[in-house]
Amino acid sequence: MPTQAFSEIARVDARDKVLGRAQYGADVKKPGMLYAMLVPATIAKGKVSALDVAPAMETPGVVQVLGIGDFPALRAEISYRGQPTALVVAETVEAAIEGAEAVTAVYETAPYIPLMTSPGAQRVDAEGFNAGDVDRAFQNAATIVEGIFETPTQHHNAMELFGTVAEWTDGRLTVYEGCQNLDAVKAALMKAFELSLDQIAVKSEQVGGGFGQKSPPKMQTFLVAHAARLIRRPVKLVTPRGQLFHIANYRPRSVHTIRLAASAEGRLQAIIYDVVQENIPDGGFRSTGYHEDIARLYAIENFRATAGDIHIDRQMPRHTRGTHPFPAGFALESVIDEMAYKLGKDPVELRLEHEAKNDIIAGQPLSPHFLNDCLREGASRFGWSRRLPEPGSMRLADGTLVGLGVACGIFGASMSASEATLRVRADGTTRMISSGHEMGQGILTAIANVIIQGLDINPDRLEVLLGDTTLGPQLATVGERGTASCVPTAAKAVEALRARFAELAGANPPAGNLHQQLARLKRPYIEVKVSELAPGQDASAIEAYRTGGRAGTGPDYPGFTSMSYIAQFVEIHIDATTRRIRMPRAVSIADVGRVVSPRTAKSQMYGGVVWGFSTALREESEVDPRFAGYLNDDLADYVMAVNADIGEVDVGLIDKPDPRINSVGVKGMGELVMLGTAPAIANAIYHATGKRLRKLPIRINDVL
Amino acid sequence: MRALSYTVAPSAEAAVARFAAAQGSARYIAGGTNLYDLMKLGIEHPAHLIDVSRIDGMDAIETDGDILRFGGRALMTDVAYTPVVRDQYPVLSESLLKAASQQLRNMATVGGNLLQRTRCMYFRNGAGSTSMVGVYPCNKREPGSGCSAIGGLDRTHAVLGTSEACTAVAPGDWPVALMAMDATIEMLGPEGPRNLPIAEFYRLPGDTPHREFNLHPGELVTAITVRKTPAGRASTYHKIRDRESYAFALASAAVALEMDGATVRTARIALGGVATTPWRSRAAEAIVTGSPLTPELALRAGRAAFADARGGQHNAFKIELGARVIADALIIAAERRA
């Protein structure tokens, strides 16, 4: 277990990004390339009885139109508004748009259920969970707090749209697109087009934000690949944001009913928790996942969870940054705050007193963690001690209401098996072939830092490669496990290379850095290839990793469970007259184990606070039930936080290794960092106004 | 590709002549910050674009005489930062600086801004199916097709000046400030030049919501004038929105006062974000005129402005919010008196 902290290096791809040299899927240009545009269905449910593509074919510049029947994904049965009915391919993007708009459809409409509150919407129960004796705990409770909490439908809205370029060369398909799971895309394309391993390459060198939306294979990838094969020219499709709102996945609306019991001594005893979310039948985002992480946050031994889906006629909801712990944590951290008031306790103190040692889900110990350090450090930096507990008791001279709020977040520290190949050359260069996707989170920088700090090499001539199926297997960069999986493998590669070099150089190695020593030993390079497993995995995990199987595991490992933690402190100001809500200050402190790349880790935390603020006070995808479309489907009307919204944000990392999870002690943080801010804001608004708001987003009309 | 002609007009007269020759299929364009957007949304389909952004002298900002005169193609940024405007007419400067983003203000003109079209999502998301997945009926876009906002997601819609045909809110900030300052719009058309008080420039939707401006076919806004007044100094444009920048007003107020000590001698109050046109409130003005300004009186004035307001499904909060915005704006303006 290395105990040494990593020093900070600059983001390795910063310069390329600033200069516009970083290549994203939609940046790819190929000779003879054509442009495509999808044609969306304009009904919510029913059937296309006739599709007239002739006017599109007559549009100057249009080369090909794929319609219903031309490809399996283009179906006559419509199950959501915006479902693609055709793909128009043209010489220019303008002609493709014009052609797409010329396609007309005749529909047979069917009744549909657009919202979970629509007439006829029905709940389908999922499996529940129980730990301890909840009923007895509630019977013996001295204090009970309960509430119904709601979080809205939200879209990821990464800066990068869905951009796909497909090219066939001698029966070999190459696809360029931003994605988070290249191997899944590769496997799906191989199946759809009956390709062998050497006939397929998928490249995603840089991803302009994933956040879960780019995890599953996209329908457009197949359509574009099919069109490119038919026409025998490369084809590009960049789907406009208005369409993405309707066809890409999103965070489902969810409603959480939670009851929290405390004993006369002020100990938190039990939780009864029910959640229901909007979903489609067999949707990929399970309602049974909501309770799992929050049940591990505090030492509350008795926990009963029930869950269900309400089926709606929209596209499939899926994972969105923060996934289940975001909505569930909003509910839990709000009732914890309310309980603190009822018990007459400081909300920080109440949390400190309930530090969890056990995972009641898996029934085993939690790996040592530092949530309480986060709370203490955050309280100190924030100046929590100046808070007057009474709601509405703090004001500025001009009458502005002041609220100070705290909340925590928790996310499972999962891992994946992975491999890496590290080569140091005598010519002064070093190349690392790793695995995964650079989505802006800084995975390249973290891997580079492990190598730079472990080996005496030229840091500016180090190349870290990933995001390309021709390099080898590419692990799914989801559930904040990318860096946490690649870093231990990189550390193992460094150790292996040092050992190999020691073997080679003997007892009296020559002088100089590794490159110079290799030159003196007359070796052009040395290379090591290593694989690393998550705790409890065996060789079958590497086999799964190599063949596109399930190589990931956790956060419950044999004998222990590992989680990442965060504490958020916010100051909220509310104008005395107009009730405008602002956040002048936030402090965010996280325990993500050992911090490998301090700069990109802090950057993640800033972004997480902004995202948390935005989910709390800004974002909601608005569906007009009369049409079942997303009405605010652009960045002007889907209101996300802007720079002027964000006050001073102070972030900190505990930077103590998790002793059990892996050799470096690193845990994930990409999902975690957006957690806690929303309930901290709602708690601060309560502190400022005495009004408990249980539905997000909170807007000015809620506090007038 | 849809064929489109684009010409740069050397003078206002030439622009008007070209527009007349195009027989209704032309649009004037300057910054293009709204027109290009509407073209991409499939709402506007001009066959001819006549660029007026290089007309000699039409960007002049004159502040020497008894009036402030802003050329129709003067940029929002340039007017906002003109020293006399910034120092003596904060209501004008603030209305420009609280609109859009710096990039847009560097392109958009103060004349074009008068004609900005509504942000009603049913209006914008109804025409094209590729950039948006819409097809929402809208009387403004397609007369007679119906209004989807009534009975729909109307949180951002108007509570004043609405009709059975349309509740779309007027989007601008600058026109609201001009409404408070009794600006005059100078136009040039096929029939020659014409001046119109801004109060007569905008039309209520009534049963013809597609007709938004009292602008004759082919008329070009050549300038905007504001008579100089000491009320300019004790003025503000107060804007409340869903985020701190890059958003349209949920409710805004342009207020300019002449004070005798703590007593209001004259008041000009106009509202944005709450009405179907930039909205002058004489009722609110009457409440504060001749009285010492207190927070209670300011709020009473605010409430008076909304006496005839009518909320829809989700926007009734604007009636209370709008009253409070006026109240805050009155206090801010009064604090700026010399």
TrEMBL record, chain A:
Pfam families: Ald_Xan_dh_C, MoCoBD_1, MoCoBD_2. This is Xanthine dehydrogenase. It comes from the Bacteria. SMART domains: Ald_Xan_dh_C. SUPFAM superfamilies: CO dehydrogenase molybdoprotein N-domain-like, Molybdenum cofactor-binding domain. GO terms for molecular function: oxidoreductase activity. InterPro entries: Ald_Oxase/Xan_DH_a/b (IPR000674), Ald_Oxase/Xan_DH_a/b_sf (IPR036856), AldOxase/xan_DH_MoCoBD1 (IPR008274), AldOxase/xan_DH_MoCoBD2 (IPR046867), AldOxase/xan_DH_Mopterin-bd_sf (IPR037165), N-heterocyclic_Hydroxylase (IPR052516). It comes from Mesorhizobium mediterraneum. Residues 19-111 form the Aldehyde oxidase/xanthine dehydrogenase a/b hammerhead domain.
TrEMBL record, chain B:
PANTHER family: OXIDOREDUCTASE, XANTHINE DEHYDROGENASE SUBUNIT C-RELATED. GO terms for molecular function: FAD binding; oxidoreductase activity. Keywords: FAD, Flavoprotein. This is FAD-binding molybdopterin dehydrogenase. Signal peptide: none annotated. It holds the Pfam family FAD_binding_5. It comes from the Bacteria. InterPro entries: CO_DH_flav_C, CO_DH_flav_C_dom_sf, Diverse_Substr_Oxidored, FAD-bd_PCMH, FAD-bd_PCMH-like_sf, FAD-bd_PCMH_sub1, FAD-bd_PCMH_sub2, Mopterin_DH_FAD-bd. The keyword Flavoprotein applies. Residues 1-231 form the FAD-binding PCMH-type domain. SMART domains: CO_deh_flav_C. It comes from Mesorhizobium mediterraneum.
